[in-house]
Design goal:
single chain; 304 residues; alpha/beta; Rossmann fold; N-(1-d-carboxylethyl)-l-norvaline Dehydrogenase, domain 2; 2 domains; 3-stranded mixed sheet; 16 helices; 8 strands; 55% helix; globular; binds nicotinamide-adenine-dinucleotide
Length: 304
């Protein structure tokens, strides 16, 4: 196996050009890598290539000849669905590219994938990200990785083009576990921020002023700083991260905790809250629309 570091102009297959994948693949292209973007949605593939470049018509064609394959898909199940499809699996097993799953997959899915790939001597790391679309565009994502340290080192130049903070969390699946747990903390912080600001509003305090107070105080968190004014108070609810994906991350956290006999009750309650909100609002609604759900639930409860 060639153990050299991966650097431009190496070919990278990038599967999943959605809200996050599109700008992440763009960062790799800007860093000088040959990026072969593929997505099930042909419109985003056309937009990624513009007028230039040969567009792969399926994932196997994007993977063939690539030194690295990055997946940025909704779930670990969708990652397995793509990589284990016959033509993709054949290309991976014969050419042995380094695989990086940057999706927020469940660690159990990642380990199940690894069980199938490991006998062929394929290298896989999990390297999910945090920071949302804004930081994907600027190449300033936080990356939390799991897997073999040597493989991660070979991929450092690739990951440096996407993020500014790379933390090796432990063995394969550790990055995915931390990503789900991070989103539990983030989701709980958003709910607390929305509730505090809406209560302040009912008391007669200008909600923007309430956010200013939180941001100058110990109640400050990522939601008070980057979400409440930007996507909630203006009613835009368009941060680029769906409520379905957030509910999935909390379900992953809850399943992880239960599997480790650590079913902390608040974690399980938050997972149910986000799952109920997803059912109420629809999975494609933005996660910041939790504001709408909380207020609608509140008015229904008051009316009954
Ligand atoms: P998205 O829904 O915008 O994009 C997913 C893309 O995958 C879509 O373009 C879809 O067409 C494509 N896709 C789905 N199945 C496919 C298949 N079988 N073959 C090829 N393409 C397929 O989602 P996103 O917001 O970009 O999130 C991607 C991942 O990153 C998720 O796991 C999410 O939880 C995680 N994430 C999202 C954010 C965010 O702010 N949006 C932040 C951090 C992590």
């Amino acid at each position: 196996m060639n153990a050299s570091k991966i650097s431009p102009p190496a070919a990278i297959a990038f599967i999943g050009l959605g809200n996050m994948g599109f700008p992440m693949a763009g960062r790799l292209r800007a860093a000088g890598f040959q990026v072969r973007g593929y997505d099930a949605n042909s419109a985003v593939v056309r937009s990624f290539y513009g007028d230039g470049g040969v567009q792969p018509t399926n994932a196997a064609k994007a993977i063939s000849g690539a030194a690295v394959v990055i997946t940025m898909l909704p779930t670990g199940a969708s990652v397995r669905g793509v990589l284990l499809e016959d033509a993709c699996l054949a290309a991976i097993q014969t050419q042995r590219p380094l695989l990086i799953d940057m999706s927020s997959s469940a660690p159990a899915d990642t380990l199940a994938l690894w069980k199938i790939l490991e006998p062929s001597g394929i290298c896989l790391i999990d390297a999910p990200v945090s920071g949302g679309v804004v930081r994907a565009q600027s190449g300033a994502l936080a990356i939390m990785a799991g897997g073999d340290a040597e493989t991660l080192d070979r991929l450092k130049t690739v990951l440096d083009a996407i993020g500014t903070s790379l933390i090796h969390c432990g063995p394969l699946g550790a990055g995915h576990a931390m990503k789900a747990l991070n989103n539990y903390v983030s989701a709980a912080g958003l709910v607390a921020a929305i509730e505090a600001v809406r209560v302040a509003e009912r008391f007669g305090i200008d909600p923007e002023r309430a956010v200013d107070v939180l941001n100058a105080s110990t109640g400050s968190n990522n939601s008070t700083q980057n979400k409440i004014k930007q996507f909630v108070l203006n009613g835009r609810y368009d941060s680029g991260f769906s409520i379905g994906l957030m509910a999935k991350d909390l379900a992953t956290s809850a399943a992880l905790a239960s599997s480790l006999a650590a079913p902390f009750p608040q974690l399980l309650r938050y997972s149910k809250l986000w799952s109920d909100a997803e059912k109420h609002l629809g999975s494609t609604q933005d996660h910041t629309a939790m504001d709408v759900y909380l207020r609608e639930t509140l008015s229904t409860e008051q009316a009954s």
